[in-house]
Amino acid sequence: MEIAILVVFVLGYVCIAAEHAIKIDKAATALLTGTLCWTLYFISGGSADALSEHVSQGGAADVYGFLDERLMHHVQEISGILLFLMGAMTIVELIDAHEGFKVITDRITSRSKVKLMWILALITFFLSAALDNLTTAIVMISLARKLIDDQQTRWMFGGIIIIAANAGGAWSPIGDVTTTMLWIGGQITAGAIIPSVIIPSLVSLLLPLSILSFVMKGEVKRPDIKEHIEHQASRRDQRLVFTLGVGGLLMVPVFKTVTHLPPFMGMMFSLGLLWMVTELIHSKKIMEERSKFSPLQALRKIDMPSVLFFLGILLAVGVLNETGQLLQLSAWLKESLGNIYSINIAIGLLSAVIDNVPLVAASMGMYEVSPAVAGDSWADLFVTDGAFWHFLAYTAGTGGSILIIGSAAGVAVMGIEKITFTWYLRKIAPWALLGYLAGCGVYVFLGL
Questions:
Q1: Residue 357 and residue 378 in contact, taking contact as beta carbons nearer than 8 Å
Q2: Of the given ranges (136-150, 170-184, 200-214), which has the lowest mean pLDDT?
Q3: Sign (positive/negative) of CA torsion 369, 363, 173, 344?
Q4: Nearest to 248 by CA among 213, 273, 218, 212
């Protein structure tokens, strides 16, 4: 039955990677893969060794009681991640509904291609750490469409926005879903991941940005855009919602540190506060005008297919963890590649082709957080904030920039701007790969 589970998982993986070719949303494939894998695991009766150990520790004696407990254990872990993501998405949608990002974008006046590219890239890098790479990429490419009329120039800007969004998300516990997974799972802490990964992440952006600066010449021509001002938020409301929203997101790690509650509780607190404030500031408006700024409207606009995709993938990876296949894979990687740097670099390169969420989820299942062991240098790499976890956050986060299909940010920009796979492969991918490898080198050098 383990072979059947593995076959279903691999087939699901292939369909997810070929989403655009087969015209089936990856969320549907992930959900089907996750539920089928658990169905096969239940039918097989699970692992006899695991059941015996479970019973010896005072757990349920019957097979299905044991399997139910194992499934609910994974669901409990997954639900924390999903609630966190849904809260963050809703906050960002509320900021966007109030046009809060204009607090930043209205201050961009430069027409120089090189200067504008640096401005947008650095804003994307730091904004991605506070929001998330997908949302930031969408916001910034939408801004680029208002600033740049020429399509080819806009595509170049789109490429650097993808690199900047993924690099910015890698060093923040709330900037990329994979880094968030590691933070919630206890593999990293917010206070340690930032100083450890920010410099390699910045290098992975600055190198391609510097190279492309020699390619871009002249000034941009701005498109003639007429703003739609019906039911527009006031400047005061824009600034208030932006400040509360971004401030709430940044306070989540602080909330966890002070209260010791799970991260999703801090996110729910921030959402509840922003929800209450937005209801109050629009309370005297007519219903038609209030509806645009309503948190209920923001909830309808969040990316639920992505949430369901994460649910399906994490369920499927949970089964591989239960069957012991991830432990076998970790042993094989150790024997084949020999050190954590090679393993993580390979994972990062693979994330250019395969979504980084299942890769990181599999890595979390392959290597458990271990206590420090005297004289065991290998075990020391997997303690909380160990070198393996920090380097994994960097490689999985930035490796997806190498191909336009390798990250959610890339796919979003590809869809909005209609950038072709081959154009990105020729114009952006070589510099993204160079930046990725340079960041890897910097991380290894700083870690020695």
A1: no
A2: 136-150
A3: positive
A4: 273
Cβ atoms within 10 Å of 359's Cβ, excluding its own: 22
Mean pLDDT over residues 155-161, rounded?
Answer: 93
Per the listing, tokens 């590649």 go with: 337
Q: What is the pLDDT of residue 99?
A: 82
Q: What are the φ/ψ torsions at residue 199 (nearest 5 degrees)?
A: -70, -50
The structure tokens listed for 187 are: 């593999």
Render the burial of 32-61: b for 16+ CB within 10 Å, e for the rest: bbbebbbebbbeeebbeeebeebeeeeeee
Task: Count CB atoms within 10 A of the CB of residue 212.
Answer: 22
- From the list 163, 157, 156, 188, the residue with the least C-alpha distance to 174 is 188
Distance (Å, whole) CA 212 – CA 163: 12
Q: Is it the case that residue 122 has pLDDT exceeding 70?
A: yes
pLDDT, residue 230, reads 53
Residue 93 to residue 59: CA distance in whole angstroms = 43
Output 52 or 324, whichever has higher pLDDT: 324
The whole-model pTM stands at 0.74
pLDDT of residue 109: 78
CB 417 within 8 A of CB 155: yes
Residue 93 pLDDT level (bands cut at 50, 70, 90): confident
Cα atoms in the Cβ-side hemisphere of radius 13 Å centred on 233:
26
> Which pLDDT score is estimated for 372?
61
Nearest to 409 by CA among 213, 131, 185: 131
Amino acid at 375: G
Spatial distance between the Cα atoms of 170 and 266, rounded to a whole number of angstroms: 20
